[in-house]
Each structure stands twice: as C-alpha cells, then as structure tokens.
Amino acid sequence: MVQRFGFCCKWLNDTSEFGGMKVNAKDRELNGRSTTMRWLREHKDEAVQRQWDIMTHNTLAARRLIQRVGSLPPERRMVRLGSEMLQGYTEKDWKSWWQQPHIQSHLENLFAPVGEMARTLDVKISFHPGQFCVLASDTPDIVERSIEEFEYHADMARWMGFGKSFQDGCKINVHISGRQGPEGIKKALPRLSQEARNLITIENDEMGHGLEKSLELEKHLALVLDIHHHWIRDEEYINANDDRVKRVIDSWRGVRPSMHYSYSRDEHLAVAGLGDKTNTEMHNIKDLLERGCKKQKLRAHSDLLPNTKVNDWALSFSENFDIQVEAKGKNMATEQLYRQAKETSVI
Question: What's the number of domains the chain is made of?
C-alpha cells in the first residue's frame, strides 16, 4: 500500500509566497480565489457575476491542483482542498441563492470532473472546515450553523462522487471542540447526511479535548491523530506502537488512516534560548515551558520542517498512516519530509 505525504490547500513555489501569494505568482491558477461578504453587499450589481466567476475559477483551480499533485510520485498524491471554494454558501444573505435548483445542478457539473480527476490520478483529497465549525457546542444555534457548514463540505464531496461508502477517498475533518465533547459529536452524527457521516473524521485538539476524548468516538467514526496537538496538550511524544495509536488505526475499519503533522515556529522556540539546538533535538515540552515558551505560541505552524529528529519521529508513523503536513510552506514543506523519508529509507 502506498505511503502518502500530503499538504494543505495551496501550491507554492518560493518562500516569498509563505506570507501570501501575489496575483502574478507562477502557479496562481492552481489556487483558489475569494471575496468578502462586505464586498458582495457593497457591490450588489456585480455580486452575482463575482460569485459565478469565483466558483468557476475555484473548481477549475481544484482540478489543476489535483492534476499537478497527480503528476508527482505516488507517495506525494495527497492534498487538502480549501474551504473557500463557494463564497458565502452558508451565509444568510446567500444561502437561498446557492440552493436554487439550477445553481445546484451547475455545481454538480463543475465538481464532478474534480472528483474524476482525483480518482483517475489516485489523489487522496480532504477538506477541513474552519475552527468555527463546532459540532459539540452546548449552544444549539452554534450546532445548527456548524451542521450547515459541515454539510457544505459534504455537498462538495458528494458532487465529486465521494461519500457513497465509509471513507471512500475524501475525508472531512473537524476538531473535537465544544463543551459537550464526544457526547455532542454523538448527538450531531444522526443529524448529518449519509455522505457526511461516511466522510467525517474527528481530530484531537491541542488545547481542548485530546486523544483520550477522541477515542470515545472510535466506534462511531474515523479518527485523525494530530501528533503535534498531542505533544502540546499531553506533553509527550506519543509512540507509533502505542495502544492508543492502534485504536486510532482500528477506527478506520481497514481503510488506510490519515494523520496530521506540524512543527512549532522558530521564533516561538527561540524564547527557550536553545541556540544552535533549537532545531536539532526532540525537546521536552515541559523544559520549553519552564524556559518561557507558551503553549499558545507553540501551536503555530512553522513554514518548513527544519528538525530532522522530530521529522524522524513523525516518519515512524508512516508505515500505518498517510501524513498530512500542516505548514505555511504547503507543498514545499511536504517535499522536505518526503525527501527525508526517501533518504532514510522509510519509503
């Protein structure tokens, strides 16, 4: 089975693009565009045309991005698609517009080739609704809006031909956030469409509900292990052979699992005064905290993956997991990890 290394949402070619991509960037056409609800409100005569232009561009960009990823070695064929695909799909001012039958039919026609491209080129794809998608909130209105937002992503997956069976090529991942925790997720699940229930994955949080809480859902859905989140919250480098990790694998019911990997930013590690050792050792987080680092800061994703020892730890999971790299450097960071895997004979 192929061991995959994926990245999130955008294709970058240069470190200058880490802070934002210019309109004349080399591969701008592989990446999505967006607008704001304010712009749409203030330009009512142009708003509908802007929506058509953006949806057309973004679905075509998704196809181009998948095509690019599909040209990479099999181990690199994994990518997360951006949530900005359809602007204001769940916003009160635009919901009814998006739900018009002719718009829905057009969207199905736009997204179907995206899914076909992914299956033809054997590219594993995913979505990650934003942090405001809180299915386990104790506020009913937030739960309603979160279900609506999750179903937006399920619609895109369904139009692409996914969601017909359990984890059939496109996961939709959310954090286990909200005061109701696992019980809140269990309450929300029956309210989701069949496609949404087939594709949902739950990820352990770095500050809230951790891996132990995620494991309460192991019989209900597939779990995504985020090892950086676990390192921050539970203050340990979890072992790839840990029984908890095996339970995560089992939650995928025979489908190859995905996990997330990120690394803290240099400037936040530098607070510890480690000098040349900042990116050459596997740091004890308790020591970092004693030296003045803050968990809130350590959460932030690095641009690239400069610590080869921590990378080795992440790669120890690759026999049983596909690794989704979450870094500002997107595909460039994933290429870095992939090269290290090749050089160290992990793959």
Answer: 1
